Amino acid sequence: MTDAFPEHPPLRRGRPWSSRTSRGADIVVAVFLFIGEAAVYMGMTFTYGLEGWAAQGGPAGLDAARLADIAWMEGFLCVLLAFAALALLSRAPWTVVSQLVVAGIVAVLLVSAQHDYDRAHPAPAPTPRAGYSPCYSGSGTCD
């Protein structure tokens, strides 16, 4: 007798980490991600730059635009690191390297933007203690 239903080997679904991604697909994805992320970064930087320009020199509007740009760059850096982790999981070395390079560039730009903001907004001077009296030259009240 013949079987009406021949046995087929069970389908095995490949997991991303089960085999290495082909070099061609890896490089294509790395290039497209690099170009797309550069376009998104430049577009958002341009947008927040226009918001600062629209503030017309008002310190509150300019500070809000700078802080929004810094916050956006922090989130963008987290997304870049998540892409790098997914590429690492997919065993795509060229994509991992490109994502880490882009993340490093964005991290340097983020630190630079935060440093510029902190230098423009120094911490206020401490308030004097309760019994403080200023010392003027020649007053004779200096301790």
What share of residues are in beta strands?
A: under 5%
Percent helix range: 55-70%
Shape: elongated
Mean pLDDT: 84
The count of strands amounts to 0
What is the H-and-E element order? HHH
Return the structural class.
Answer: mainly alpha
Which stretches of 5+ consecutive residues score pLDDT under 50? none
Main sheet characteristics:
none
Measured between the Cα atoms of the first and last residue, the distance is 114 Å
Radius of gyration: 28 Å
Count, helices? 3
Describe this structure in words.
The protein is mostly helical. The protein has a domain at 23-118. The chain has three helices and no strands. It has helices spanning 23-54, 59-89, 93-120. Helix 1 (23-54) packs antiparallel against helix 2 (59-89), helix 1 runs parallel beside helix 3 (93-120) and helix 2 packs antiparallel against helix 3 (93-120). The longest helix has 32 residues, at 23-54. The radius of gyration is 28 Å and the shape is elongated. The mean pLDDT is 84.
